[in-house]
Structures are given as C-alpha cells and as structure tokens.
Amino acid sequence: MQESAPEPTPRAPDDRGPDDGSQRPDRASRLRLRRQRSRRQVIEWVLLLGGAVLVAIVIKTFLFQAFYIPSESMVPTLKVHDRVLVNKLSYRLHGVHRGDIVVFTKPKREMSNIKDLVKRVIALPDETVEGRDGHVYVDGHRLLEPYLPAGIETRTFKAQKVPANAVWVMGDNRPFSEDSTVFGPIPKSSIVGRVFFRVWPLGRIGFL
C-alpha cells in the first residue's frame, strides 16, 4: 500500500507581514544616508581644522611666537639652533626692563640676511651708555652683568645718550655680537617681544 506524503507543518502566524523588503531601506536610500554622513564628517573636519588654524594665527599674531637662534652672539645664555618662545604681549602690559632678552626686527644698518635678531637690553631711554675698561657704564655707573661668560670684556665705545622710545641692546658673547655698538640704539617699536622660555633642546628646556 502506498504511503501518503506527510503534511507540511503549519507555520506560526507572522505579524511582520510578507518578506518583501518593505521594512528595509533600499540600496539608493542607503547610499544617500552614507553620503550625508560623509558630508557631515567632512564639514566637521573642515570646521575643526579651520578653528585650529585661526587659533594658531591669533596666538602667533598677538601672544607667542617661536624663534630659533642663528648665531653665537648670546652664548652661553642661548646657543646656536636653540628654539625659544617670545611673549609678544609683555610690552603692551609693561615697559622694557634692563636685562630683558628681546627679539627685534633687524635695523637697516645691519647687513646680515637674518630678519630678526636677539639681544639683551642694556640701557633704557634717556640713559647714557658707555663702554670702557672692558665694562659697560650706564649714567656713569658700572653695570653688573652676571650673565656674561667668564673673561668676556666689552669693546670700548664712546658715551652716548639713548633716545626716547629706544633701547640699547648687546649680545652676551660680546666679541661675536653685532649689536648697538655697531648699529646704534633700536626703536622700541621694532621689538617683537621678550624671550621667556627655551623649548629646545630637550635637555635645556626652561624659563629664561
């Protein structure tokens, strides 16, 4: 006797409806969503990078700027290829102080191809500065300079009065420094800012 085929097991009711893909986004919708996400990411990155550039420009223009030391004129305080930070806000808050290390725009009389120079402020406006007997004299009094290397002497130069709104600058390494003894006092308006921190090399990082 021929056996009849077993009847199929009835499926449980499925309230999800027919599996016709009507509940899932089609390919075009998925591509559109993907493009929208990519566009948002691009916009976010552009805004982030633009904001970072803007902040960097503001900092460099108004607050701090990095410089490297190109010569031996400030040895041993600053050595060749040292990297330093300059505070560009200092002299908007207070006057220039004797002993400050400053970066300033190269005077026209300076013939080197270096745009900015770094020296130490020695004499202030309306003071009389002179070099004699290997030392600096300000208003007739010998200037104590503990930052100078041992045995370094200052070249002789005649007494001269620093004009108002100008300062007299010199390098710590006097024999190898082209400074105010060569190009005269510099206008305070030419000062970029005050050197306050060495960032390189790593072994000499610190405030100045």
Helices and strands in order:
Elements: H1 27-63, E1 64-68, E2 83-87, H2 90-93, E3 101-105, E4 116-123, E5 128-132, E6 135-138, E7 141-142, E8 157-161, E9 166-170, H3 180-183, E10 186-187, E11 191-200, E12 206-207
Antiparallel strand pairs: 1-2, 2-11, 3-4, 3-11, 4-9, 5-6, 5-8, 6-7, 9-10, 11-12
Keywords:
208 residues, Umud Fragment, subunit A, 8-stranded antiparallel β-sheet, 4-stranded antiparallel β-sheet, 3 helices, 12 strands, 22% helix, elongated
Characterization of the model:
By secondary structure, the chain is α+β, with helices and mostly antiparallel strands. The chain is built from 3 helices and 12 strands; from the N terminus they run H-E-E-H-E-E-E-E-E-E-E-H-E-E-E. Strand 5 and strand 6 form a beta hairpin. The relative contact order is 0.16. The model has no long low-confidence stretch (mean pLDDT 85).
The level-1 CATH class of the largest domain:
Mainly Beta
Give the termini separation. Answer: 109 Å
Number of helices: 3
Estimate the mean pLDDT confidence: 85
- Unreliable stretches (pLDDT < 50, length at least 5) are none
Overall spatial form: elongated
Structural class: alpha+beta
Strand content: 25-35%
State the domain count. 2
Helix amount: 10-25%
CATH topology of the largest domain: Umud Fragment, subunit A
Radius of gyration: 35 Å
The sequence of SSEs as H and E is HEEHEEEEEEEHEEE
CATH architecture of the largest domain: Ribbon
Q: Largest sheet, described in full?
A: 8 strands, antiparallel
